[in-house]
Amino acid sequence: MNIIDALHSRDVFAPLFRDPATWHSWEVYLRGLFGLGLETAADRRLFRETTGLVHMGNTLIFGW
User: How many folded domains does the chain comprise?
Assistant: First the structure.
C-alpha cells in the first residue's frame, strides 16, 4: 500500500476526509513526493505550478 492507497482506504485515512475532492492538490503533491506518477495533464501542470519542478523523477523528493 502506498500513501495514495492509504488516503483512499476505508481502513486508514478515507474516513477522515469529508470531501476527498478538496484534497486533490495534496494528493498530486504526495504523488510527486513519493514518485508515484501523475495521471493527467492537469495534474502534471498543477505539480509544475506549485512546486516549480519541470520533471518529476521516480524517486522520493524533498518535501520542504
Answer: 1
